[in-house]
Automatic annotation (TrEMBL):
Keyword Cell membrane: no
Family from the record: Belongs to the allantoicase family.
UniProt protein name: Probable allantoicase
Alphabetized PANTHER family for the sequence: ALLANTOICASE, INACTIVE ALLANTOICASE-RELATED
Pathway: Nitrogen metabolism; (S)-allantoin degradation; (S)-ureidoglycolate from allantoate (aminidohydrolase route): step 1/1
Allantoicase domain: residues covered: 28-174, 195-336
Enzymatic reactions: allantoate + H2O = (S)-ureidoglycolate + urea
One of the GO BP terms on file: allantoin catabolic process
Organism per entry: Halopseudomonas oceani
Taxonomy of the source species: Bacteria, Pseudomonadati, Pseudomonadota, Gammaproteobacteria, Pseudomonadales
EC number: 3.5.3.4
GO function terms (MF aspect): allantoicase activity
NCBIfam families hit by this protein: allantoicase (TIGR02961)
Group of enzyme by EC: hydrolase
Keywords associated with the record: Hydrolase, Purine metabolism
Amino acid sequence: MSTAIIAPAVDGPAFTKTGLNLADASLGAEFLWATDQFFAPGIRMLNPEPAAFYPGLYDDNGKWMDGWETRRRRTTGHDTAIIKLALAGTLQGVDFDTSFFTGNFAPAVSLEACYSPDAEPTNDSAWTELLSAVELGGNAHHFHELTSDQVWTHLRLHLYPDGGVARLRVYGTPHCDWSTLDSSQTINLIALENGGNQVAWSDAHYGEPRKLLRPGRGTDMGDGWETRRRREPGNDWCILTLGHKGLIEHVEVDTAHFKGNFPARCSIQAACVEQGTTKSLITQSMFWHTLMDEQPLTADAIHQFTELNDIGPITHIRFNIIPDGGVSRLRLFGKPVA
């Protein structure tokens, strides 16, 4: 196999930073159905990694492409696919990425959505248009803001008339229906699937703090929050918001795969925040009460902490790592409160 050429990073609009890519296969997004997948299967389009190109790589059907690509259409109509989002949520924007598709990209696309939490939708389901047909170019990112405030579980992507898309990234906010949860049950209140999210951080050179909130254990050292090597006094930190206000009973810190670069210690400050901006939260967080005193960490291990300070219900935390390094997962188990 020839050496891969990796698509360069692109600085996208604000929604690519505030939103979570709900079409991420590593989070559970699925490519359910398509009219055609002759040249490249649709699941590649949901890969969270940047698209890759192998100049000399071919398979039985032709040039190997990193994305979804249909055959050349010789009839009327167009190609369509149905995708299940990793998590039900509201949507902020979309990126149609045609990296390395230069003579075979789809000339235009449109996007529809539906809410079908209990069954896989079909073409006859109730679909709502999120984005009418827009033109695409080759080897480029195409960012479009979405304004719907409804909760969706599935997408239907139309290619006009055929061709390929390297990556489909759909940014939004996971939705958790707290009215269906038992308030006496202990759950991970900061999990992505329960609405947890990142707010601010001191550094995220090797990985953003949102990765701390993903399900399961980290797959490798890139699947976590990791800062650069600190060469000045102080320590690194991130501010995270819980999916719901709650009382925390125990904390889990997982340093999976971080062996020579795990933090020496960690601590957690927390508060019940009624309102504020990102900048004001950063300032306020320096004076929040201590939920968990400084605790030592070790390499590549799950740490359980049950000795917490009673500071009442909280909505936000400041997770301090001392002095720097990487953590794979952070979980805050507790009970939601009104």
